[in-house]
UniProtKB/TrEMBL annotation:
Record protein name field: Lysyl oxidase homolog
UniProt cross-references to SUPFAM superfamilies, sorted A to Z: SRCR-like
Species of provenance: Equus przewalskii (Przewalski's horse)
Highest taxon, organism lineage: Eukaryota
Protein's gene: LOXL3
Pfam families: Lysyl_oxidase, SRCR
Presence of the UniProt keyword Calcium in the record: no
Disulfide bridge partners, by residue number: 113-177, 126-187, 157-167, 291-301, 375-439, 388-449, 419-429, 535-545
Subcellular compartments: Secreted, Extracellular space
UniProt keyword Oxidoreductase present: yes
Record-annotated SRCR domain positions: 87-188, 214-325, 350-450, 460-568
Length: 796
């Protein structure tokens, strides 16, 4: 075979097969450059360097024309539809793999609206940007509003598309959004192998402040975490640098403290630090910082970076120093004196529900004694930061919309909240009082707040598990001598203790708390250093729970009887529809001959055992219960199907021995009647419009309650009652508790109880004022329990 390329004409040996050609090329490339012309082609003379570049071109042509298609590669193949598009990540503050998504089309850069934006769309865009996948996405212009066109709106992708042009949308340039709704993506920091980024433009290569910290100037080895006072340092590409204090203001300190998880700042002794600075060497990287005090990040402030050739840095100045005031949750660990903490002014009027980590959750506000949610319309970082600081955290890291922290239930109190960022409370921000038609719980607003670094995650670890989310719990203890790791006795270890362990690990909720860990290897750690752990479930670390640390008492010895956990970022959240209980409650006198199965399942009062069976009757308070799953994971029985118990009388399986407790209480809390309901049929009775049923009990089917669905126990089925035969007339409290033994983990146990006022006169019962346990203010709850049955009654 002979080819002619301008001045260079060469002849190749004729190859009889593709394999011979590949072998020849492999040999040719492996030969030294000096031997190519004399050994491979003896007739050729040495050629110049520029001629060798033609040789490279020739060989590339041979690879593509003679050798066929290359072997499969993970490098993305750019479709023709994407050839005319270019992509970039913009905005600040951000890291190289995250930012506002911008697309250039027809020579004009534009953004994407966050309406209907999903993680699947983020996957497609991250691959367009050269990353393997997306780990998250943002809304409401988290990285700042863009400019120009909004190219895409209502973008809908399945996640498998090779180009964003294959996703459904309203069409290019057709949008009803503003740049306050610009979408962003957070990609996995892993590039696609072989990705050609000719269509990806990285913008804003200027220096950015990615991270801020306080470095204690004195007593660094002895001061407890979190650090609340010290030199301000920013992380730049070449390392950590100090900030020049010229022009430094309280507004700047307010922003820095917010980033570090503190709600406010206080004055600092600058004279002391200036004297100290004269004896130390400093590396200044930032100056001219001017914040308004409402920014969520230092990068949003006006500031200047020192250039590499600046020799005189911060002349006459010193490193900026900040002192922050921790919130109530972190005041004790930081060593703050009690008198320095402001006293709470009455009951809090804002709270977070449903978050897997401290400082995050669905925003709920208290109005007229009742808790309700906030609609996400116009919800932004300024409003979210007001909530975070009001609750004792720092500024907001994210303002969440679309019920990202689960849907609430009941009233929606606020909408279109517009804060300046300086308000002391969300209620001080201009807002719209909402009506039922304005918003739904699918639009509940949420927040993620900046938190102080406490270091508690370094004092606990998991070992032996199949993933980082499970394993045997090991804790670090101080004691005499060096720090060492040890195990926790499994006695009495349960869901509440496991929840605290998972929270301390930063792994979210607890799926299971295990008392035996036979299948997880303990490695070299065999000593049990903690026992008798009892938590309420709200603690930040196991150290805050009651426990034995000096005198270990463990009934069962050995590493296989130590505590273990399985953690998860999501959890279910069951909530009883309290209004339905009130609407369906009534009394029935049921003959004993119809209650044999109920007696077998222990659904009657103890006095029924001595009754004259089958004659006589039992007086039953009956009602329906509708149990919703408002969490972010399905509610599943703890036990697998292999351990469910068959009950021949009713002809069904029990997946949980006790699913609900029904009690009649006196005003002082004394129980006068009780009932319990086994979960003989956990299934999806009905679901929201966009949710499909997953669980049904027929034919030994899987049991559970899907997110967005509810399980209905009708008033006319067995055991859906309380036996009140022995209850005397009077005023009482009806209490229903779901998942009373915490057998299955939930994101929130405080809303598992429902209470009603009831007045019984011996013949009829009045039930009213039914509400979830945490739905009312503290004052309203005290009033409820003080005067049960004394308000205006409804005859049932």
């Amino acid at each position: 075979m002979s080819l002619s390329l301008g001045l260079l004409s060469v002849s190749f040996p004729l190859m009889t097969s593709l394999s011979q050609t590949r072998a020849w090329l492999s040999l040719s490339f492996s030969l030294p450059l000096s031997l190519w012309s004399t050994q491979t082609f003896p007739a050729m003379q040495p050629v110049s360097v520029w001629q060798w570049s033609l040789w490279g071109l020739l060989l590339c042509l041979l690879c593509s024309s003679c050798l066929g298609s290359p072997s499969p590669s993970t490098a993305p193949e750019k479709r023709a539809e994407s050839q005319g598009l270019r992509f970039r990540l913009a905005g600040f503050p951000r890291k190289p793999f995250e930012g506002r998504v911008e697309i250039e089309r027809a020579g004009e850069w534009g953004t994407i609206c966050d309406d209907d934006f999903t993680l699947q769309a983020a996957h497609v865009l991250c691959r367009e940007l050269g990353f393997t996948e997306a780990t998250g996405w943002t809304h409401s212009a988290k990285y700042g509003p863009g400019t120009g066109r909004i190219w895409l709106d209502n973008l809908s992708c399945s996640g498998t598309e090779k180009s964003v042009t294959e996703c459904a949308s309203r069409g290019w340039g057709n949008s009803d959004c503003t740049h306050d709704e610009d979408a962003g993506v957070i990609c996995k920091d892993q590039r696609l192998p072989g990705f050609s980024d000719f269509n990806v433009i990285e913008v804003e290569h200027n220096l950015q402040v990615e991270e801020v910290r306080l470095r204690a100037a004195v007593g660094r080895g002895r001061r407890p975490l979190p650090v609340t006072e010290g030199l301000v340092e920013v992380r730049l590409p070449d390392g950590w640098s100090q900030v020049c204090d010229k022009g430094w203001s309280a507004h700047n300190s307010h922003v820095v403290c917010g980033m570090l998880g503190f709600p406010s700042e206080k004055r600092v002794n600058t004279a002391f630090y200036r004297l100290l600075a004269q004896r130390q060497q400093h590396s200044f990287g930032l100056h001219g910082v001017a914040c308004m005090g409402t920014e969520a990040h230092l990068s949003l402030c006006s500031l200047e970076f020192y250039r590499a050739n600046d020799t005189a840095r911060c002349p006459g100045g010193a490193p900026a120093v900040v002192s922050c005031v921790p919130g109530p949750l972190y005041a004790a660990s930081s060593g703050q004196k009690k008198q320095q903490q402001p006293k709470p002014q009455g009951e809090a009027r804002v709270r977070l529900k449903g978050g897997s980590h401290p400082g995050e959750g669905r925003v709920e506000v208290l109005k007229a004694g009742t808790w309700g949610t906030v609609c996400d319309r116009k919800w932004d970082l300024l409003a979210a930061s007001v909530v975070c600081r009001e609750l004792g955290f720092g500024s907001a890291r994210e303002a969440l919309s679309g019920a990202r922290m689960g849907q609430g239930m009941g009233a929606i109190h606020l909408s279109e909240v517009r804060c300046s960022g300086q308000e002391p409370s969300l209620w001080k921000c201009p807002h719209k009082n909402i009506t039922a038609e304005d918003c739904s719980h699918s639009q509940d607003a949420g927040v993620r707040c900046n938190l102080p670094y406490t270091g508690v995650d370094t004092k606990i670890r998991l070992s032996g598990g199949r993933s980082r989310h499970e394993g045997r719990v090991e804790v670090q203890i101080g004691g005499p001598g060096p720090l060492r790791w040890g195990l926790i006795c499994g006695d009495d270890w349960g869901t509440l203790e496991a929840m605290v362990a998972c929270r301390q690990l930063g792994l979210g909720y607890a799926n299971h708390g295990l008392q035996e860990t036979w299948y997880w290897d303990s490695g070299n750690v065999t000593e049990v250093v903690m026992s008798g752990v009892r938590c309420t479930g709200t603690e930040l670390s196991l150290d805050q729970c009651a426990h034995h640390s000096t005198h270990i008492a463990c009934k069962r010895t050995g590493t296989h009887f130590t505590a273990g956990v399985i953690c998860s970022e999501t959890a279910s959240d069951l909530l009883l529809h309290s209004a339905l209980v009130q609407e369906t409650a009534y009394i029935e006198d049921r003959p004993l001959h119809m209650l044999y199965c109920a007696a077998e399942e222990n659904c009657l009062a103890r006095s029924a055992r001595s009754a004259n069976w089958p004659y006589g009757h039992r007086r039953l308070l009956r009602f329906s219960s509708q149990i919703h799953n408002l969490g972010r994971a399905d509610f599943r029985p703890k036990a697998g199907r292999h351990s469910w118990v068959w009950h021949e009388c009713h002809g069904h399986y029990h997946s949980m021995d006790i699913f609900t407790h029904y009690d009649i209480l006196t005003p002082n809390g004394t129980k006068v009647a009780e009932g319990h309901k086994a979960s003989f049929c956990l299934e999806d009775t009905e679901c929201q419009e966009d949710v499909s049923k997953r669980y049904e009990c027929a034919n030994f089917g899987e049991q559970g309650i899907t997110v967005g669905c509810w399980d209905l126990y009708r008033h006319d089925i067995d055991c859906q009652w309380i036996d009140i035969t022995d209850v005397k007339p009077g005023n009482y409290i009806l209490q229903v508790v779901i998942n009373p033994n915490f057998e299955v983990a939930e994101s929130d146990f405080t809303n598992n109880a429902m209470k009603c006022n009831c007045k019984y006169d011996g013949h009829r019962i009045w039930v009213h004022n039914c509400h979830i346990g945490d739905a009312l203010s503290e004052e309203a709850n005290r009033k409820f329990e003080r005067y049960p049955g004394q308000t205006s009654n409804q005859i049932i």
